[in-house]
Amino acid sequence: MRLFTEIIPPAYFLPGFCLTVAVLVLLSCVQNAIHNLPYYRIPAVGMSRWSLFDRQANVRFMASARALIREGFEQGHTMFQAMFPHGPMLVLHPKYVDEVRRHPSLSLEEAVKESLPVGDYPGFEAFRGTENHHILLDVINQKITRNLKQYTISLARETELTLDEHFGQPQEWKSYCFASEVPYIVARLSTLVFLGEQVCRDTEWLDISVNYTLDIFGAITALRRWPPILRPVVHWFLEPAQKLRKRVQVARRIVQREMRRRQHEHKPRQPDALDWLHEVAGGRHLDVTTAQIGLTLVTIHTTSNLLTNVIYDLAANPQYLPPLREEIQSVLETDGTFHKTSLTKMKLLDSVVKESQRLNPPGLTSLHRYAMEEITLSDATVIPKGASLVVSAHTMQDESIYLNAHTYDGYRFYRKRQEPGHENKHQLVMTSAEHYGFGHGVRACPGRFFATNEIKILLAHIILKYDIRFPDGQSRPVNWEIGQDLVCDQTVQVLFRAR
Ligand code: HEM
């Protein structure tokens, strides 16, 4: 310390400190600006070539992504750049979807890492592409998907209980905000398979399952407002990040309590993701709580969003309810109860969901990737090394592929499946270059088999138990468009009446 004061006299401490902070912040701003510089020679829409002076580009994209993406293609480009929330992103025409899905140098993990300012900050663990993620993928692919058969009956039982709690048996039309009820229903059913029967009824866990995802996106938005260099300090003080850390603490307590409980339980029970995580990890380092939160992050709101869209489409098109009931009842009469194979036989139900997803995919774009090296596509289009890209999803409403592409047709995929040779191609779980609501290719959503099962079980119960409609004067609400994300209207009321 004495040596220090000999070199720098005390009078210079404060100005010196302030100067150092100012230089660091300036450097960070320059680093940020360089990161936000547009890609050289690639056409830009909604942003100037000099993004340093175009502070509105991001605001413009968040408010009107659909119009900007349309503008890019109408100008005749097959690849252009737009200012996404984390910086410039290349938007590719759907004709490249097969090349993108196959290319070994286009990475999903790197794309996620590059776009999210989550560092090593506590609370954000679920987004970190660590060993946990690979264990999680193996658990989903090798365990959850393969054990759907065992879980179908218990999921159907839990569905009855939870629907009764949420909607009861109203004898007159009763109004519900379906979009805010459904995440808790989905959380309860998903947790049955992820953490077992005890935890799936624990309201504290359900609260985490539903709200961790909302909080993490809130915290990311708050972090993005700060220069990168300050984020490692600032995150400790940001309220959404504090909330996130508390949620992880509570989650850890609940998961550990469940693990302890199991050590003393001697009754046989169905294995679930908590068992499978340990089994699949096989000695590799594993943070079980982070893995469980990771599961909820990818499951609850994606599934709830699709379910809500289906309910909105059915409430707006009630003519589908009688044939759906007929299909579900006839399958149940033959099978006696809900088996995995019973759900496969419900082809109209499958078609109705796939059609809702076609018109209301999770986003205007899909297949978010990062170029690990410079890539030349088959038509000589060059993707620079280090670029982030997405593929536009507008092909799902393309008139040249889908007749009356903008009109809801619940029978669309049912009819396609009647064509010889197409019996399976148009199932909800199948992805294609024409329908990539679950992504496409090797990185397509591994949870789609589980999500489809859960969605069909829930819908079959709702359709058999209730009449549904919109209040008079309410039509099918349009989605909220937040940048490239499509979120179903979270406020609309749906009327339910017990049958
Ligand atoms: C309707 C519900 C769901 C939708 C619409 C959906 C959609 C998607 C999409 C679009 C992707 C990106 C694919 C790509 O970039 O090619 C994805 C990835 C992923 N999904 Fe889903 N998902 C759903 C449910 C689930 C569920 C229930 C799980 C877990 C059980 C899950 C686990 C994952 C995982 C782990 C990834 C990353 C895959 C990887 O790293 O290779 N998803 N999902």
Automatic annotation (TrEMBL):
Keyword Heme in annotation: yes
Domain of life: Eukaryota
Entries under Gene3D superfamilies matching the protein: Cytochrome P450 (1.10.630.10)
Cofactor(s) it depends on: heme
Keyword annotations from UniProtKB, A to Z: Heme, Iron, Metal-binding, Monooxygenase, Oxidoreductase
InterPro entries with a match to the protein in the record: Cyt_P450, Cyt_P450_CS, Cyt_P450_E_grp-IV, Cyt_P450_sf
PROSITE patterns cross-referenced by the UniProt entry: CYTOCHROME_P450, PROKAR_LIPOPROTEIN
UniProt KW Protein biosynthesis keyword: no
Entry binding sites for heme: C445
Family under the similarity heading: Belongs to the cytochrome P450 family.
Name of the molecule in the record: Uncharacterized protein
Source organism per UniProt: Aspergillus kawachii (White koji mold)
Highest classification ranks of the organism: Eukaryota, Fungi, Dikarya, Ascomycota, Pezizomycotina
